[in-house]
Amino acid sequence: MTITANGHRTIGPPVPPHNLEAERSALGAILLTDTLLPTMVLEVGLAEEDFYSPAHGLVFAAMRALQHAGEPIDHLTVSAQLERSSQLEKVGGREAVEQLAGWVPAAGNGAHYAKIVRELSQTRRLLTATYQIQAEVSERRQGAEELIEFAERLIFALRAEKLSSSQRLLEHAVADEIDRLEKAVAHQREIPGLSTGLGELDRLLGGLQDGRLYVVAARPAMGKSLLSLQIARHIATNEHQRVLFASLEMSDSETAQRHLAAESGVDPERIHLGKINPADWTPLLQAAAASSQISLHLLDDGDLSLFKLRAQARQIAVRHDNLRLIVVDYLQLMRAERPTGNRVEDVSEFSRGLKRLAREMNCPVLAVAQLSRAVEQRPDKRPLLSDLRESGQIEADADCVLMLYRDDYYDRDSERPGEMDIIIRKNRQGRLGQITTQIDSQLRYKPVLRQASADPPPAF
User: Fold this and answer.
1) 344 found inside a domain
2) Could you say which DSSP state residue 397 is in?
3) What tens digit of pLDDT does each residue of 113-141 get?
């Protein structure tokens, strides 16, 4: 039910929220001062589809076309552009374009008018999303878990302002890349991505970069969980970034024990067994107090699915307006929402889902993976990409695959006790190579620089 201007009640759908005066004022301000257009587009995020009036959307699109062509924007050039695209009559002709400039209360407030238009557009999209959610619930074509995922995806898309089309001009992508490089230089960073804490590895990878899927693969007990936790802790502690660490194998208690050992210097075995000396309490309590400043979210769920992981990541991103890394330990233990009966297909779906999650959240995803027993059958037990267990799709989806090898795992009399090789078997944007690390008494891997090596850059 709606109420008209004269107070009469009418039955029918409510009119979506909009403000035609603000739309006309925003367009008129551009006609008077065309330098406002970049501000409205880049800072406010105003787009053609944000206008409630189709005619206003067409006028704005014509202004954008003139901007891209490097031509001036006024009522004459806009009318000519609309005429070239056979849309002048759809907006009401030349007079309608000329009249827009007369609607502006103050041209200097153009960005404010644009914000009003943008906010009302977002409100209409939210309204549309609620209708879509209601329709899906009413039709009951999906289970409750899928419906919640559907609703979360719609709302998160609004919150993250990702409703605009994914297609864009190369010049805009290049401009974003230049901005990224300028920020890296301004902050005097040697790498563009997040630091793993292992300098040689960072130089080979360029750090962990947004939108990419990194896989750490190894046989059991090789150190992959420990390494992934070390990287997560470093980024949360030293890079001061928000991290989600989802473990299907290691409990929150084990994670906390490893963190306390690494930060306090207290022997990890004594922490595990609870045999704490009086001298241990001061460093332990100091490490515990410092943990309040670390944005590391632990997700201890042995029944983790892609739906649950996405929901948790979105919740953190919305609540804290920030999420810079997602770690999953480990990929093959994830639960399929709709098991196919074919484990290879299920694991392939996990891999594709994690890659999509990296793109959606615009942050790196680091996934731990198990290797098959095939590596045990060879004389040379250094792992290969073909050893990735249960799915070649992991190799295809991953932007980078790190494989771990410990010589003392296979040879108790090895001349390299405690050393672990991190072998880069795939690196879509950089070099292949290897670094060697040494584990210390606090269960931390540190580079053995004398053994660092790198292959030539790949041919793209």
Assistant:
1) yes
2) H
3) 999 999 999 889 888 888 888 888 887 77
Distance CA 350, CA 335 (A): 9
Whether residues 249 and 334 fall in one domain: yes
Beta strands in 219-294 (DSSP E): 243-247
Work out how many domains the chain is built from and give that number. Answer: 2
Q: Residue 229: exposed, middle, or buried by beta-carbon count in 10 A (0-12, 13-18, 19+)?
A: buried
H/E element holding 218?
strand 213-218
CA-to-CA dists, residue 279 to 7, 259, 313, 427, angstroms: 79, 18, 39, 46
- Residue 249 annotated to the active site: yes
The CATH number of the domain holding residue 24 is 1.10.860.10
Tell me: do 269 and 371 sit in the same domain.
yes
> What is the DSSP secondary-structure string of 89-155?
GGGTHHHHHHHHGGG-S-GGGHHHHHHHHHHHHHHHHHHHHHHHHHHHHHHT-S-HHHHHHHHHHHH
Is residue 417 situated within a structural domain? yes
For 81, the domain range is 12-117
Report yes or no: 28 and 105 within 8 Å, Cβ to Cβ: no
Same domain, 435 and 342: yes
Same domain membership, residue 207 and residue 61:
no
Residue 187 is predicted with a pLDDT of: 67
Total-model pTM: 0.64
Check which CATH number belongs to the domain holding 410 and give it.
Answer: 3.40.50.300
Are 266 and 360 in the same domain? yes
Choosing from 249, 269, 349, 390, the catalytic residue is: 249
Task: Specify which residues 424 forms β-bridges with.
Answer: 402, 433
- In a domain, residue 211? The reply is yes
First-last CA distance in the chain:
61
The CB density around residue 220, as the number of other CB atoms within 10 Å, is 9
CA separation, residue 75 to residues 49, 67, 126 (Å): 21, 14, 33
* Secondary structure class of 394 (helix, strand, coil): helix
- Which residue in the block uniquely carries the two structure tokens 């992508």? 173
Token pair of 217, please?
């693969």
Question: Could you read off the pLDDT of 383-438 as tens digits, one per residue?
Answer: 988 888 666 788 888 999 999 999 888 888 888 888 899 999 999 888 899 999 98
